[in-house]
Amino acid sequence: MNTQFILKLILILLMWLLSINSHASKMKPSAMALVCEMSSTLLLNKFITDLTEADFSDDECETIKIRSIDPEKRLLWVKINFNIDAEMKKTNQPMGLFISGKASSTAYLNGQLIGSNGKPALLKANEIVGLMDTVLPLDKALLQESENKLIVLLSAHHGFLDLGSPIHRISLGRYQNPTDSILRHYWPSLLPFGVLLLGSFYLILMTKMNQLPHKTYMLPSMASFAAAQLFVEVYRGLFAYPYSFHDWRLLLVLLCSLGFGMCLLTYVLSMIKLKMRGQHLFALSTLITLSVVLVNGFDVKNILAILLPVVIALIYAAFAWRKGQHNMRFVFMLLLLFLLMILLSAYAFIDTVYYYCVALLIFMLMAQQAVQVSHTKKQQLKYQARATQLQQVIDQQEAQDNTDQLEIRSAGKVEWVLINEIAYCKGAGDYIELVLLDGNTKLFYGSLSELSLRLPTTFLKTHRSYLVNTTLINSLERTASGAGKLKLSHGFNVPVSRRILPKIREKLG
């Protein structure tokens, strides 16, 4: 795999994703609203039957951004003053008031009731839970060309999480299903969703078929967590659910983020030669979980659930690379780019860009794993071929050891010579003289190397031209020239070359 080419491809894709993200994140400044909390004392002392007469001059009222409105465990009056274009009033398209957030609501425009989403109340028992995303039909006749006054009553008693921005949107626009804009926001993520699902299925199948090592199960687990998180995110654009379910949805998103991070960390640790890997993983998992639980803000929790495992995995990968595991270099570079993506895109990372990055990360890890498996299989085939060749030699040698006769072909006839009657063999050009115990000789046409393959291991090469039957050796003597001489039974003497003499001495013990 060409690592430089792959890294360049990743950088180009990340730059493209960042350009999409930066373009999508350009939003108009949040509108301002005057917010007053309605308490039981206020209801008793200033009982109001018409919200248009509500007193927003109370000292406790404050002007804040719409996204900063927090009706959790409270009942709020919200007043928004706005102007409209003449073209908006003249348009033939139906208009609507869009309210997206964790709250029940009732809205009034210029003193007239528009509608309700559930029923806001001071007490939980009296509140009727509204939808997370809703649109109230708006009679354009209520709109004034001068300043308009929108008053919304909000309460949220049925959640269990304290969110930093429970109200996401209060705005006027063309009447449509309020979930359409959410779905349009997430539809580009359907491509990585399909990739993650197919990748997960493929990896599980390959692992089941023993085509990939069992540690690869972490890759489909990562893909499954990311796909599940994307489905939970997109669910808001598919179905209008009660705002009380939103807390559970956020918890599911957080658990998926945490699950993805843990699987990524586990996978990287499984690739590293590490002692007490289980203890490392347990300690790190505990640290990450505690950090996620203790930090405030669900966006921060989601980012931290991914960021911490990536940073820790990056450190371990760098350590393994430095220790000589060169396959971890690619993993280190990949995690580094993934980390940079998190830091550059900040909160937008847990939006659509995240799923492209995850799909790319899993794909590259899968490609690396496939390359490693291919390399391992080639090595196994090479070792298997060597083992087969060695086994053939062993089998051939055993066959030679179990053979008591040597076949000799000469002048169109075949002779058989008993091997234990051969004293030694002497090379003589294109043929070899087989000297028998009785002093007679037989001619073998071929090389000394070829003959040695057909004789048992009891025959030993003592010279470039001699093979000796070691069962007949009586003694080994050293000559004046530094070479050696073997004395065999039946009075035979065989020379031993100076080069081979140490081996012969070692062989004879």
Description of the molecule:
There is one protein chain. With 509 residues, the protein is α+β, with helices and mostly antiparallel strands. The chain has three domains: 32-176, Jelly Rolls (Sandwich); 184-378; 405-508, LytTr DNA-binding domain (OB fold (Dihydrolipoamide Acetyltransferase, E2P), Beta Barrel). Helices cover 46% and strands 22% of the residues. It contains 13 helices and 19 strands. It has a six-stranded antiparallel β-sheet with strand order 2-1-3-8-5-6, with no helix packed on it. A five-stranded antiparallel β-sheet has the order 14-13-12-16-15, with helices on one face. Strand 10 and strand 11 (413-418) form a beta hairpin. The protein starts with a helix and ends with a helix.
Number of domains: 3
Q: What are the segments in which pLDDT stays under 50 over at least 5 consecutive residues?
A: 10-30, 44-52
What is the rounded Rg?
Answer: 42 Å
The biggest sheet, with number of strands, parallel, antiparallel or mixed sense and barrel status, is: 6 strands, antiparallel
Average pLDDT value? 81
Strand arrangement within the widest β-sheet reads: 2-1-3-8-5-6
Q: Indicate the multimeric state.
A: single chain
Q: Report the sheet-strand fraction.
A: 15-25%
Question: What best-fitting shape do the alpha-carbon axes yield?
Answer: rod-shaped
Proportion in helices: 40-55%
Class computed from helices, strands and strand pairing = alpha+beta
Q: What is the first-to-last residue Cα distance?
A: 53 Å
Number of H/I helices: 13
Count of individual beta strands: 19
